[in-house]
């Protein structure tokens, strides 16, 4: 009898172990499927179609250019509750989910800029260089004054390029300086001659010979 009892206990233990292994194998095989199903459910709950974004409890379509978000949509696939940007002060140029509009840019006249196109609800201010100003390094935040030419213009100044000037002649420049300086030097020498005559009590009306003027000129230099 004791032997039969021991055999029964061994058979029961083997059956229990086999059942446990089978259950564990079934759970192991089932877990990846459950995880995959859970991920799919989560994706369906939180994901939105392309072009839409979750706002609160629903997937919402964006505001159009020229608008800003005022409130969330009320159902999946509906457009956000939007309101227009302030004309001439704000703008948006793309579809978006933001509650704010962008501030319009300013064309600074002190930097040589002026308005080419005014700001609208869907487009920012467009600036350009004022007359006689240019900018050749876009984007242009300031423009430079066009150069002035002393010896003639090869190409006029444009909004994107400075004036091209002709090169000046060196001989002409020297001649110009001579025409300016020679009369000044002659007047100075005559003034000094008359002053010396006055100091020496000589008559001012007495003619002055060229030799005297030249001699006095060199005396002045030394």
Structure description:
It is built from three helices and twelve strands. The chain is α+β, with helices and mostly antiparallel strands and 222 residues long. A two-stranded antiparallel sheet has the order 1-2. Strands 3-4 form a two-stranded antiparallel ribbon. A hairpin with a 2-residue loop joins strand 1 and strand 2. Helix 2 crosses helix 3 (210-221).
Secondary structure layout:
Layout: H1 2-46, E1 53-55, E2 58-60, E3 67-71, E4 81-84, E5 90-91, E6 102-103, E7 113-117, E8 126-129, E9 133-134, E10 144-145, E11 153-155, E12 164-165, H2 170-199, H3 210-221
Helix pairs in contact: 2-3
| Helicity, as a percent range | 25-40%
**Rg for CA atoms:** 48 Å
Main β sheet profile: 2 strands, antiparallel
Pairing-aware structural class of the strands and helices?
alpha+beta
CATH topology of the domain at 109-165: Tumor Necrosis Factor Receptor, subunit A, domain 2
| Assigned CATH class of the domain at 109-165 | Mainly Beta
Please state roughly what percent of the residues sit in beta strands, choosing from under 5%, 5-15%, 15-25%, 25-35%, 35-45% or over 45%: 15-25%
Mean pLDDT: 77
General shape: rod-shaped
Distance between the termini: 152 Å
Count of extended strands: 12
Query: Order of helices and strands, N to C?
Result: HEEEEEEEEEEEEHH
Please identify, by name, the CATH architecture of the domain at 109-165: Ribbon
Strand adjacency order, main sheet? 1-2
Q: Which parts are unreliable, with pLDDT below 50 for 5 consecutive residues or more?
A: 20-32, 34-46
Work out the helix count.
3
């Amino acid at each position: 009898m004791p032997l039969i009892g021991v055999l029964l206990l061994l058979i029961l233990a083997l059956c229990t172990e086999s059942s446990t292994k089978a259950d564990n194998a079934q759970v192991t095989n089932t877990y990846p499927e459950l995880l995959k199903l859970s991920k799919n459910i989560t994706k369906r709950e939180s994901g939105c179609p392309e072009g839409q974004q979750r706002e609160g409890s629903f997937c919402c379509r964006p505001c159009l250019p020229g608008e800003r978000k005022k409130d969330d949509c009320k159902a999946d696939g509906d457009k956000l509750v939007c309101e227009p940007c302030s004309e001439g002060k704000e703008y948006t140029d793309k579809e978006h989910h933001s509650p704010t509009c962008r501030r319009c840019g300013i064309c600074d006249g002190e930097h040589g800029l002026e308005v080419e196109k005014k700001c609208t609800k869907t487009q920012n201010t467009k600036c350009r260089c004022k007359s006689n100003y240019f900018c050749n390094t876009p984007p242009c935040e300031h423009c430079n004054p066009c150069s002035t030419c002393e010896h003639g213009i090869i190409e006029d100044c444009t909004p994107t390029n400075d004036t091209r000037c002709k090169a000046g002649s060196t001989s002409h420049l020297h001649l110009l300086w001579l025409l300016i300086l020679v009369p000044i030097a002659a007047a100075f020498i005559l003034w000094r001659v008359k002053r010396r005559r006055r100091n020496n009590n000589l008559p001012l009306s007495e003619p002055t010979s060229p030799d005297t003027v030249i001699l006095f000129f060199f005396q002045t230099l030394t």
